[in-house]
Design a protein that fits this description.
heterodimer; A: 653 residues; mainly alpha; two-stranded antiparallel ribbon; B: 493 residues; 2 strands; 3% strand; globular
């Protein structure tokens, strides 16, 4: 039997869509079991088929690039929906469907008592569909479709508990900030369309080297290369989706959504779409050192400054959210250093261990009766052994202890930046090194506060503490496995091998990974080197600091907070980004709108022009009316004056 | 083979049918008035299907042409025909009228036969506007169409309806008069012919072109409406009954934009290029200024009215950058806006019928009691925001692509609507639909019934189909748009 691979490609997203449709449209009829069965079945099918495709692409080299249907044609240029199945997309498909499947199973337990159960399953299945369309796209337009669709589902899920004011505000904020990114993205697409005459990846990347010399005028006197312009515009989109400073403000607030989606959407998959975009567009970014430099610096700022914020959070989910921001910064740094493979590698390992950490946090939150404050936890290790073990795996992977997954991907990024010559690389190296220490500090702080020390919850909660049910624990264990071993397995093929083939392009002068490959022959030598290098020492130092502050001398952090009041305030307030945005953009737009309305429309246009015209006519008619007084002598007098004027006129001619 | 009178049928069937509905008499027979009206509206929709099915995509020539002498003394003819520009608008008209008849079913309780008749007659007149190939015929339809709308707002409208109708009437009349002067000038200049296609061949000096362009602009800009002659629209919408708002937003606004394509661009190519800066500026002002004004509206209908003006700014922007993406994008935006704004006004209508308030502050937490309604409205809101997969995206995207080719900054300024549009639309949605239930009246709301479900579902299908597969919509336009672009690129000096 021969199976047409094109049908398989199509079946992967459609299976998820079908699951979403069944759960969403018929959820009222089929109940909880029916809804989650449909959604899980869809995603499970997608996962299995993705594995098949992965094998087909990676081991047999079957790359596919083809059109599914023509969306529209304008000006003779077709715009299509189509798939590009290459190692990059195949890897993403496996990661997305795997994490999604784990989250689906976990949700059975987490959302069990929620009245929106079916709706939730419908949304996360729909999300998986959209994310697959995004990564499988073979052109920028479809990428944008997926991009917006995941944004929509993210919006719907952040505001899932729609009666909560904080949740719906957070969802609106997420949508608005992402729209700022979309503005850049759409203009980037328009620029590609204008200069390349196509939106198809293959065609655009093939022409790109010839376009490298083309200069466009942005403003009178300001010019830049077309490629730089396109890359920067696309990167604005990536900054919003992947929450890079200053467009990061929506991600911490997105924690208002239920925890499973924090794991799936706001840690493992959707927020990495921006990273994926830049990696996918590597043939363009390679041609612009300016763009790479911007990417590098933005990533470095995010990696460092967002990590600091993780240290002062008390909400367990917010600690992980800021950690996600910081890790996304790492990936962006890797992109800027032209180590695209390292970025995708870290994207993959991060998807596993961050989803794991979020789901473990969710397990804790369930046990705590939806209490998320770390100050009210403590001592949970006695009650939740499975959650404890898996959380440890996640923490060790995140902080980069060898041989856990994060060690390989994070060290690879640090090594790559060290070898990069892009402007800003020095700062980026400093930033990622510093945040290694901070990462260990906030991660173990969270772990210690939640699981160790004295229980600080009320007696009622403490009595009811218990390990979560199997549907919750099994996904944790299944995610802990790749969090432990994916780095070891992936390092050599992904970074130094030919795994990505032509799907990622790097110019020889930028190729830092190749230089690293010459030095490290495999995972074991990489560990040997890592154990002797600075990042590992910083991790240990971070661990020790956390242990010192939160286990050995738990009273010290309070003293420090009092001494460093200003610094603490700055950190707790997220450097004032929210205040600034609210004051300038939100209130500003409303104030301008009110002025334009009340003064522009009501006073000037209606008041002066429209009703003014009416008034002038009324006044004119009133004057004219007075002449028609009806008295004979008035008319006679008028005739005499008229006659007199006419005579004068003729006489003086 | 399709009937030689297919187009006439689409114009006159609703007019004759509307008169027939009048004969059902008083509200004692309201049931029959409703049923007969729906039957006629469906028949007209069915009558417009052959226009699409029999339409040849490969030619820019007028199709389904009928040409009869009407007033020989002035060489005025009953000359009608359609091309790829007018066909989608005619289909939109017949589709929308079906929706409007269903929407007014139980809501309108007084003078039902007159209400339904007004909409049916108006439908015929609007199709007549899109089909006319004779300038006087066009003008007659153009003016006559106002009368039913005037009646609809004046009789079934809100408390301040007299001010709104007078403002609406005077605004449009003022513009139309100048258009008539321009048409007469072209008649005498062109050797006593009112044939629109004969205008296309006229040689005109730049001064003549600019003056005629400005005269047309007055008529069309008021209808679109373009900033700063837009202030009649929010008032008219607020006072109009739901059906009136739907027709006003979905079709009547499109007349002005259509006028630019049928008259200004092909008759006055040099003036169009000469004054493109003005048109682009006014369009961008509409997009930015009006979006900000929409942000602070407290009345749902006013907010959607301002949103309409901003979206129409995209249409006029697309027309005056003179490339295929721009014009096709503008046309698609017109159709999409017909679906989306119509749907949003219907959503407001659904709420208004229950709560008798359009004030945003009276709402909150509607989703808890009207989940199905909330889902529909979410779709239409997202279409208004221009989310890919909905019809709202297609036109905006093409216009942005087109205007980027003209000047990246035009595209940038236009694309700010991605942000502002999302802000006013989603903020509206958030305040009305989400949050805690604010009052007992909201708590007493019941979800959409079968009738409401049917029109919302029809529109939802339209919005999604056009968003996921705009190909067929674009396909009918290509030949005519390319022909138009050729016309506008040849100087008449």
């Amino acid at each position: 039997m021969t199976v047409n691979m094109q049908d398989v490609y199509l079946a992967i997203p459609l299976a998820c869509l079908a699951g979403a449709a069944v759960a969403g449209l018929f959820g009222w009829a089929i109940g909880h079991t029916g809804a989650h069965t449909a959604a899980i079945l869809g995603v499970a099918v997608a996962f299995v088929l993705s594995l098949t495709v992965f094998r087909d692409v990676v081991f047999y080299g079957h790359v596919f690039n083809g059109t599914v249907y023509t969306w529209g044609v304008s000006g003779g240029i077709p715009m299509e929906v189509g798939f590009l199945i290459d190692p990059l997309s195949a890897l993403m498909m496996v990661v997305v469907t795997f994490v999604s499947l784990m989250v689906h199973i976990y949700t059975i337990g987490y959302m069990r008592d929620d009245p929106g159960y079916q709706r939730f399953f419908s949304f996360i299945a729909l999300f998986t569909f959209a994310m697959l369309m995004l990564v499988m796209a073979n052109n920028f337009l479809q990428l944008f479709f997926g991009w917006e669709a995941v944004g929509l589902v993210s919006y719907l899920l952040i505001g899932f508990w729609f009666t909560r004011e904080s949740a719906v505000s957070a969802s609106l904020k997420a949508f608005m900030v992402n729209r700022v990114g979309d503005l850049g993205f759409v203009l980037g697409i328009a620029a590609i369309y204008q200069h390349f005459g196509t939106l198809d990846y293959g065609a655009v990347f093939a022409i790109a080297p010839q376009m490298a010399g083309t200069i466009v005028q942005v403003l009178p006197g300001v010019s830049c290369s077309v490629i730089t312009l396109i890359c920067l515009l696309l990167f604005v989109g990536a900054m919003a989706k992947s929450a890079q400073v200053p467009l990061h403000v929506w991600l911490p607030d997105s924690m208002e959504g239920p925890t499973p989606i924090s794991a799936l959407i706001h840690a493992a998959t959707m927020v990495t779409a921006g990273i994926f975009l830049v990696a996918r567009a590597s043939p363009l970014f390679e041609l612009s050192d300016t763009a790479l430099s911007v990417v590098l610096v933005v990533g470095a700022i995010t990696a460092l400054f967002m990590a600091f914020l993780g240290v002062v959070q008390n909400d367990i989910k917010r600690v992980i959210a800021y950690s996600t921001l910081s890790q996304l910064g790492y990936m962006t740094v890797a992109l800027g250093a032209s180590a695209y493979a390292a970025a995708i590698f870290h994207l993959m390992t991060h998807a596993f261990f961050k989803a794991l950490l979020f789901l473990a946090a969710g397990s804790v939150i369930m046990a705590m009766h939806h209490e998320q404050d770390l100050r009210k936890m403590g001592g949970l290790r006695k009650y939740m052994p499975w959650t404890l073990i898996t959380a440890w795996v996640g923490a060790l992977a995140l902080t980069g202890f060898p041989p856990f997954a994060g060690f390989f991907s994070k060290d690879a990024i640090i090594e790559a930046v060290q070898r990069s010559h892009i402007p800003g690389a020095g700062f980026a190296y400093f930033a990622v090194m510093t945040s290694v220490f901070v990462t260990a500090l906030y991660t173990f702080r969270m772990l210690f506060l939640a699981f160790y020390g004295k229980p600080r919850m009320d007696e009622h909660t403490r009595k009811h503490l218990k390990e979560s049910p199997a549907v919750v624990v099994i996904p944790l264990v299944l995610l802990a496995v790749p969090s432990a071993i994916a780095g070891w397995l992936g390092l050599t093929p992904l970074l130094f091998g030919k795994f990505f083939g032509n799907s990622i392009e790097v110019l020889p002068q930028h190729d830092v990974l190749k230089r690293m490959g010459l030095r490290f022959a495999g995972s074991a030598p990489f560990i040997a080197h890592g154990l002797q290098s600075a990042p590992f020492l910083l991790t240990v130092l971070g661990f020790a600091t956390a242990w010192f502050f939160y286990i050995r001398y738990p009273q010290v952090p309070g003293l420090i907070r009092e001494k460093a009041g200003l610094l603490y305030t700055i950190l707790v307030r997220n450097y004032g980004f929210d205040e600034f945005n609210n004051a300038v953009f939100v209130s500003g737009a409303r104030a301008v709108g009110r002025v334009l309305w009340k003064i522009g429309d009501v006073k000037l246009i209606d008041g002066m022009m429209v009703n003014g015209t009416a008034r002038v006519i009324a006044w004119g008619s009133a004057v004219a009316r007075r002449m028609q007084s009806g008295y004979i002598y008035h008319y006679a007098f008028a005739m005499i004056i008229g006659l007199f004027l006419l005579m004068t006129f003729f006489l003086h001619r | 083979m399709y009937s030689a009178h297919a187009l006439s049928l689409a114009i006159w069937l609703p007019i004759v049918g509307g008169v027939a509905v009048l004969f059902t008499g008083g509200d004692g027979n309201a049931r029959w008035a409703r049923r007969l009206s729906l039957l006629i509206a469906l028949a007209v929709f069915a009558a417009t299907i052959p226009l699409y099915a029999g339409f040849d995509h490969h030619t820019a020539a007028m199709q389904f042409v009928e040409n009869h002498r009407w007033i020989p003394a002035f060489n005025i003819n009953y000359h009608i025909g359609i091309d790829g520009i007018s066909l989608p608008l005619i289909l939109l008209t017949s589709f929308t009228t079906v929706i409007v008849v269903i929407a007014g079913w139980e809501v309108i309780k007084t003078r039902v036969s007159q209400y339904m008749a007004a909409f049916l007659v108006m439908e015929g007149l609007m199709i007549g506007v899109f089909a006319s190939m004779d300038a006087i015929l066009f003008y007659v339809f153009w003016e006559a169409m106002l009368i039913p709308m005037f009646v609809i707002i004046g009789i079934w409208g809100g408390p301040n309806r007299v001010y709104a109708t007078v403002k609406f009437f005077l605004y449009t009349l003022l513009g139309s008069v100048l258009m008539l002067v321009a048409l007469l000038y072209l008649y005498f200049k062109g050797g006593n012919s009112f044939d629109i296609q004969s205008f296309y061949a006229l040689k005109l000096s730049m001064t003549e072109q600019v003056l005629i362009f400005l005269a047309f602009l007055m008529a069309f800009a008021v209808k679109v409406p373009m900033w700063p002659v837009h202030t009649w629209l929010p008032d008219a919408h607020v006072e109009a009954p739901t059906g009136g708002s739907v027709v006003l937003a979905a079709i009547m606004l499109k007349m002005g934009a259509y006028g630019f394509l049928r008259f200004s661009l092909p008759i006055l190519p040099d003036a169009s290029h000469e004054l493109a800066w003005l048109m682009i500026t006014l369009s961008l002002v509409a997009i930015i200024y009006i979006s900000l004004v929409a942000l602070v509206q407290e009345d749902m209908k006013k907010l959607i009215a301002y949103s309409s003006i901003a979206h129409m700014g995209f249409v006029t922007l697309g027309f005056f950058i003179f490339n295929a993406q721009g014009i096709e994008g503008g046309l698609v935006e017109m159709i999409s806006h017909g679906f989306v704004s119509g749907a949003l006004f219907l959503c407001v209508g659904v709420l208004y019928d229950r709560m008798h308030s359009r004030q945003i502050r009276d709402y909150g937490g509607v989703a808890s009691h009207m989940p199905m309604f909330a889902s529909f409205m979410m779709l239409f809101v997202m279409a208004n925001v221009g989310l890919p997969g909905t019809s709202g995206f297609v036109g905006e995207f093409l216009v942005i692509l087109g205007s980027f080719q003209a000047n990246g900054w035009y595209a940038f300024l236009a694309a700010t609507m991605l942000i502002t549009g999302a802000a006013y639309t989603l903020w509206l949605y958030k305040r009305v639909i989400f949050g805690n239930v604010v009052s007992d009246r909201v708590a007493a709301l019941h979800d959409v019934g079968v009738r409401e479900f049917s029109f919302l579902a029809l529109l939802a299908v339209a919005v999604l189909t056009m968003g996921l597969w705009p190909y067929p919509f674009l396909d009918v336009m290509h030949s005519s748009v390319n022909h138009l672009l050729a016309q506008v690129s040849v100087s008449k000096l």
